[in-house]
Backbone:
């Protein structure tokens, strides 16, 4: 068109710019921008908005904003285009500021505006400040009467709540919808998967089938993710069979999740069969199978598969290397770990923070805390995962004071906000070193200073902390103050402490609480039997053994490996 001296108009340039956006072609887009400028389309809102859209979809946000700021006239679509661009890039502060400007200039946001905002909250960082802002915007949407008329708006709002784990609010939106699409169902199901309510996921799935709602592969992603959490082989195989019937089993994401699902259920042979049957394996396929071996206590097989992978056209990524390093840590092989580290540096992964954190973990688990510290200190831009790996390394090596000092440096000097995982490491270190008051202080501060709700890991660390130093009454008080749903699991460490300190009476009280639960933990029965044995109460110990046999409980065997030489 240009070479034939035919000039574009207000309709042709937007079409051409849209093509550039679809092809992510910045050179052609900027060339068209030059033509638009020379031909005097600066005041054409339609053309200028298309320029903004082209730059934003090509992720050149600064240029998109510059064109927007220079527009003499703007439309709602113009504002939405820039807001959407910020949301796609997870620049939510800028998106919200622009939304405020839009209102100040007298433009009424459309449903598309709010879809972008809610979707941005769903995909961006899960700051609870953003959740509060999202809830405020939800109120604005309700006042404007936009809900229940736009399915995409309802779905995006539901997705925001689901991503923040607020399934109660997400469910209110879902139940209020007059029209539900498959996306509506998969969004609410994904929310329940995220919080671990697998029973509700399958309940919703059954409702979908009864209402003849179309089932797509995303539905199966949620179902398989639920099976991974449960580790229930019978349920997992049923879901797999249904996926086969619906023709969804050949989706790449489904195949990779099926590998993880069977590995989680302890069926590595089935996982390997699926892996071997994949004709065009991608990096996720290899990583899923390697992780399956590594997490199931087969680090040698994981390492062998990695060596096979590097001989194929599939290049490992950071997640693959992190998985392999985790397998090295479980295998206790420092030599193999160093071999993987060499691969990391030879292939340009030395700046990958996930890999750096895994190297720290690997060296500490293989007994080389100095090398772990060396890797940690070499990391220039440390994120929370990097700090957590080093804090955990100190904790498992019985260096609680170093773990505490590093934690204080992270939070005070570096201003990094801790999460539940780093507090687990901190409490573990305090427990192993008998730092009771420090442990209690951090257990309290995680809630009061950072709003972190304790998990079962934190509660068991708390009980272990008190039990190790013989403060058994205090440990029992802590258990009784816990939420009922975690008490049974938290009593296990208390029984172990009772055995170590020979306190049969308190152990019996704890066991009565635990064994009254329907789960009847085999591990706790074994601990109670060992407690009776330790004080010569053979009859009572035998009764515990009979309880295990009568209920056909199976105690899982633990194992640990470390390379001594070679």
Residues:
């Amino acid at each position: 068109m240009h070479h034939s001296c035919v000039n574009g108009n207000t309709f042709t340039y937007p079409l051409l710019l849209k093509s550039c956006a679809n092809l992510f072609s910045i050179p052609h887009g900027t060339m068209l921008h030059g033509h638009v400028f020379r031909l005097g389309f600066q005041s054409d809102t339609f053309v200028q908005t298309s320029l903004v859209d082209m730059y934003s979809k090509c992720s050149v946000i600064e240029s998109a904003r510059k064109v927007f700021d220079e527009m003499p006239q703007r439309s709602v679509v113009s504002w939405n285009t820039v807001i959407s661009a910020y949301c796609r890039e997870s620049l939510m502060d800028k998106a919200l500021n622009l939304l405020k400007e839009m209102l100040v200039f007298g433009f009424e946001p459309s449903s598309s505006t709010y879809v972008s905002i809610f979707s941005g909250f769903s995909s961006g960082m899960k700051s609870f400040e953003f959740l509060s802002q999202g809830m405020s915007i939800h109120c604005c949407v309700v006042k404007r009467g936009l809900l229940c008329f736009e399915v995409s708006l309802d779905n995006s709002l539901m997705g925001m709540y689901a991503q923040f784990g607020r399934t109660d609010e997400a469910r209110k939106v879902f139940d209020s919808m007059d029209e539900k699409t498959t996306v509506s169902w998969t969004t609410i199901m994904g929310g329940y998967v995220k919080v671990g309510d697998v029973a509700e996921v399958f309940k919703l799935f059954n409702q979908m089938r009864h209402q003849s709602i179309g089932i797509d592969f995303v539905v199966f992603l949620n179902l398989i993710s639920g099976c991974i959490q449960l580790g229930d082989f019978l349920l997992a195989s049923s879901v797999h069979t249904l996926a086969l019937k619906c023709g969804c089993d050949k989706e790449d994401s489904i195949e990779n999740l099926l590998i993880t699902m069977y590995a989680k259920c302890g069926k590595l042979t089935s996982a390997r069969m699926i892996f071997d049957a994949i004709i065009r394996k991608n990096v996720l396929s290899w990583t899923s199978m390697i992780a399956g071996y590594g997490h199931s206590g087969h680090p040698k097989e994981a390492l062998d598969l990695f060596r096979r992978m590097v001989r194929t056209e599939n290049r490992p990524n950071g997640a693959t290397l992190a998985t392999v390093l985790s397998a090295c840590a479980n295998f206790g092989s420092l030599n193999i770990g160093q071999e993987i580290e060499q691969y990391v540096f030879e292939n340009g992964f030395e700046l990958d923070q996930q890999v750096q954190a895994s190297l720290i973990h690997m060296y500490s688990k293989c007994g080389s805390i100095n090398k772990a510290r060396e890797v940690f200190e070499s990391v220039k831009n440390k994120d929370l995962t990097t700090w957590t790996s080093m804090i955990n390394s100190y904790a498992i090596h019985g260096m609680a004071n170093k773990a505490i000092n590093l934690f204080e440096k992270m939070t005070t000097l570096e201003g990094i906000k801790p999460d539940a995982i780093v507090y687990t490491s901190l409490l573990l270190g305090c427990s192993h070193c008998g730092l009771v008051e420090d442990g209690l202080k951090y257990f309290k501060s995680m809630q009061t200073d950072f709003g972190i709700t304790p998990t079962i890991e934190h509660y068991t660390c708390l009980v272990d902390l008190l039990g190790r130093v013989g403060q058994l009454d205090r440990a029992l008080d802590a258990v009784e103050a816990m939420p009922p749903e975690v008490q049974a699991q938290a009593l296990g460490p208390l029984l172990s402490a009772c055995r170590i300190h020979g306190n049969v009476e308190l152990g019996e009280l704890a066991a009565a609480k635990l064994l009254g639960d329907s789960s009847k933990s085999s591990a706790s029965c074994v601990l109670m039997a060992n407690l009776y044995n330790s004080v010569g109460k053979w009859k009572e110990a035998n009764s515990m053994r009979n309880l295990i046999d009568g209920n056909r409980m199976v105690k899982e065997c633990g194992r640990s490996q470390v390379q001594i030489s070679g």
In short: The two ends are 70 Å apart (CA to CA). Residues 92 and 533 are 61 Å apart (CA to CA). Confidence is low (pLDDT under 50) at residues 1-6, 553-566.
